[in-house]
Amino acid sequence: MRNEHAFLEQLPDALAALAHTTGVEGRVVARETKTADALRDDALVEFIIKGKTHRYVVEAKTRVDRLAALGHIKNQLERPHARGLLFAPYITATIAKQCRTLDLAFLDTAGNAYLNLPGLYIYITGEKPEGLANAALAKTGGGTPTALRVMFTLLYKPELLNAPYREIVEAAGVALGAIGWVFFDLEKRGHVAGGQKKHNRRFLEPQRLFGEWVTNYPIKLRPKLNPRRFRAENADWWKTADLHNLGAYWGGEIAAAKLTKYLKPAACTIYCKAVRMRETLNKLVTDYRLRADPNGNIEVLDAFWNLPDDTQHPDVVPPILVYADLVATLDPRNLETAKLVHEKYIAHALRQT
Fold first, then answer.
1. Nearest 5°: phi and psi at 141?
2. 171-220 pLDDT, tens per residue?
3. Residue range 225-352, CATH number
């Protein structure tokens, strides 16, 4: 997070390089502004094309090397008054191609860019940065499965931020010795402050921590949850299934459909408590005639948290997990639904932490 603040100093130079290459002039008009809903924009830039001004909201990322991050970035940059622009040290050809598919504008310090405006289309890719050892490309923390379990628990239940370590251990399902190291890392990277005194710990920018978790979860933690795949003869089998009494929860598209009434699910994601996994799978296979299929559209994973069920939606995983699963697909209909989940269930909660 602190690195991103410093990295923004390179934005004027990147705009100047773009102007030199393409003739398109851009300028920074504001830095670190707050929106009406209390979100923080890293910067605002303007391009003047044929006498018309086009404004972009900038999201600076010191590292963009995972396709899974793009869905969340795309949703972060949705603003009624401006388009969104991703600014990074280096955008690979693979990432650039996906940005173009999502219509996510980008600019990097190596000279790569994508802008799609009335009367203007720029798509530059394949330019290499000078020295990939650039400090802006340094590794990011918070990516271990253990850290991600703890981060998830704290984001979902912020009151645990100052709880005894043993309560966090119980909720996150991690070893007691790991908690101190996770907090040390979060404080070192500017996500959490305090901690020297009892009940003094607080989040600094929870939205940033949430974005980091969403980016890392599908790559670092999700594959560790013993995924199993199945297929059902009846595509609507899930409509009558009662997961709550089986110690399991709907995730992904079905969870989103239940939360928003907006999406027609095509894939099925289930998170199940490990201690009841065998019982649950036997019940589902028998009652709904599921069969194992490595390419099936039904995925069953271990539930990695131990927290009280939501009273309103006891059969649905926490909204931040619904959001993470949706944006990782990069499916436009899922990205739109993820935005609804964020607006209805996540944004306000993060502002209150």
1. -95, -170
2. 999 988 888 889 988 988 889 998 666 678 999 989 999 999 999 999 99
3. 3.30.460
Domain ranges of the chain: 2-137, 145-222, 225-352
Work out whether the CA dihedral 118, 89, 61, 224 comes out positive or negative. positive
The residue written with tokens 């993060």 in the block is 350
CATH number belonging to the domain at 2-137, selected among 3.30.470, 3.30.420, 1.10.3470, 3.40.1350:
3.40.1350
Pick from 27, 35, 118: nearest CA to 77 = 35
Q: What is the pTM of this model?
A: 0.79
Q: Nearest-CA neighbor of 283 among 207, 334, 230, 331?
A: 230
How far is the C-alpha of 240 from the C-alpha of 61, rounded, in Å? 43
The span from the CA of 334 to the CA of 63, in Å, is 24
Q: Are strands 120-124 and 113-117 parallel, antiparallel or unpaired?
A: antiparallel
Question: What region does 306 belong to: left with phi over 0, alpha with psi -120 to 50, or beta?
Answer: beta
CATH of domain 145-222: 1.10.10.10
